[in-house]
Amino acid sequence: MITGRKKILNNNRENAVKNMLKLMDLTAESKKIEQLILYTKMLEQGLQSKRVTGEKTIEGIVFKQLYDSLYLVKLKQLRPESMVADVGSGGGIPGIPVKIMLPDVNICMIEANRKKAAFIRQVIDALGLLKAEVFWERVEETGHKREHRGQYNAVMCKALAAMNVLAEICLPLLKMDGNVFIYKGPAGEKEVGIAKKAIEQCGGQIAEKWFYKLPGGESRIIYRIIKAKKTPDNYPRKAGKPFKNPIK
Length: 248
Fold this sequence. Notes:
By secondary structure, the protein is of the alpha/beta class. The protein has helices at 4-23, 30-50, 58-74, 95-101, 114-127, 139-142, 163-170, 188-201, 241-244, and strands at 83-87, 106-111, 132-136, 152-158, 174-184, 204-213, 219-227.
């Protein structure tokens, strides 16, 4: 039996998800809406034991995390059947929302934290997501494995590290002419200048960027870095080095 309080929470969650999609001009059938609603519920529950997101309210999860994640869907940058990696996925951001809205895309989420990786696996199973995987390992290791290196059409990364670090750990995963999509706040513009050498050295070049705002007014930028040439074999360096000693 659903209590009055739970009913209110469920209604709030459903309304928030529907309003978020409306604000983004995204349409979704009932199954996708139900999956997004269940995911927000799992994020709230996971926050207590696994610290999978910094947002603590339904509104924060929906209008910050989900809205931000799905902006790439709004931009129509991912093709059906493409191979996509979500690096440093945390609680499945942006990979899970993108996967829900684009079920034909193959999503591989790479997460170094064991509890967070286990949480993502629970979400995949609970939502019945197909063509979705999670790997519990450091991306510096993933980038040297034959089954991952140079195998992806696109790589997504949100709130993980500075852009010069991301260039080194993400570009090795891409096929030639593939794209890295990096989610950043206003500081992204400063990071671009610092990361120029790292991006070029790892075979990439800035191709495009989109400026937008979240419903709460916070500024965001998504950068598209295209892989224009082969990444040297020595990148990424050993686990931890790209973060401790970024290319400058």
